Amino acid sequence: MKTFTDQIGNTIELSGPTKRIVSLVPSQSELLFDLGLNEELVGVTKFCIHPKQLKGTRTIVGGTKTLHFERIRELNPDLIIANKEENEEGLIKELISEYQVWTSDIHNLDDSFEMITELGKMTGRSDKANELVSEIKTAFGTLKPGRFDKNLTAAYFIWREPFMTAGGHSFISHMLELCGIENIFADSKADYPEFKLEELGPHSPDLILLSSEPFPFAEKHISEFENIFPSSKILLVDGELFSWYGSRLCKSPEYFRQLFTDI
Q1: What angle do CA 258, 261, 141 make, to 5 degrees?
Q2: Spatial contact of 26 and 48, defined as CB atoms under 8 Å apart
Q3: Mean pLDDT in consecutive groups of 10 residues from the start of the chain, 263 residues
Q4: Radius of gyration of the chain from Cα atoms?
Q5: Residue 134 class from Cβ within 10 Å (0-12 exposed, 13-18 middle, 19+ buried)?
């Protein structure tokens, strides 16, 4: 038996490389696939949309907040991958009572690297995991945080009614920092602080970033924010490239460069 400790301090035991994996985290489902675990990944959530091959070919065990336990039992997994933020604590505890559950807790790139490396160890894909970490490090090494003429500030919105932004302890805020952009809500005690419409007026960041997920901000929402932040530049952004902390990170730096080129 080999022992592994996850990122919230729980310990699991595995007799060898896993053969039947259920992933409850979209970004980590994509990661497992990219690590070469196509056959081993037997169950995913309805939000696990990448790669496209997963759709219709894996058992859907629910969403990230709600699960069909009977489907999980039918799959008889030897490993379940969860995340502290994306999955409900009560659900994780219930799963732990029956299965080996490894839970990630991601706030920065180092957390991501640790997660990728550990998943590689647990699944017998250490070489591929190490290659991926090296690729992501190289990609982020090309970002130039000091390239702007001034210190840009931003508010990154993930939800509407109530309005929710990325706080300073979030992975999204870390991505902004790596781009050389200051999150105006970095001092918030909440990971995702909530605001009423009238509370937003006093804030005047250089950039308003409206994410494509979890709330699907679109062109029709821009005018609302223009009224609240008349002096800010408003951009619709790809939420996956700001918040997915698996293999998709390889694509994030180039996206950030293109997004902020003309700022």
Answers
A1: 65
A2: yes
A3: 97 94 98 97 97 91 96 98 97 97 98 98 97 98 75 95 96 96 94 89 93 97 95 97 98 95 79
A4: 19
A5: exposed
Q: Do the domains at 2-140 and 153-260 have one common CATH topology?
A: yes
SS3 per-residue string spanning 5-32 = ECCCCCEEEECCCCCCEEECCHHHHHHH
Considering the entire predicted model, what is its pTM?
A: 0.96
- Give me the CATH topology for the region 153-260: Rossmann fold (3.40.50)
Ordered by start, the domain boundaries in the chain are 2-140, 153-260
State the Cα–Cα distance between residues 170 and 242, nearest whole angstrom: 11
On whether the CB atoms of residues 157 and 208 are closer than 8 A, the answer is yes
Q: Is the peptide bond before 51 cis (omega within 30 degrees of 0)?
A: yes
pLDDT of residue 157: 98
The burial class, CB within 10 Å (0-12 / 13-18 / 19+), for 29 is buried
- Nearest CA to 22 among 90, 85, 95, 84? 95
Q: What is the pLDDT of residue 203?
A: 87
* CATH code, residues 2-140: 3.40.50.1980
What are the DSSP calls for 55-111, one per residue? TTTSEE-B-SS-B-HHHHHHH--SEEEEETTTS-HHHHHHHHTTS-EEEE--SSHHH
- Beta-carbon contacts of 148 under 8 Å, excluding residues fewer than 6 positions away, are 180, 181, 260, 263
Per-residue CA distances from 131 to 18, 94, 107, 139 (Å): 20, 34, 21, 12
Amino acid making up residue 213:
E
- Kindly give the interhelix angle for 126-140 and 252-260, rounded to the nearest 10 degrees: 20
Could you tell me which of 50, 60, 62 has the C-alpha nearest to residue 88?
A: 62
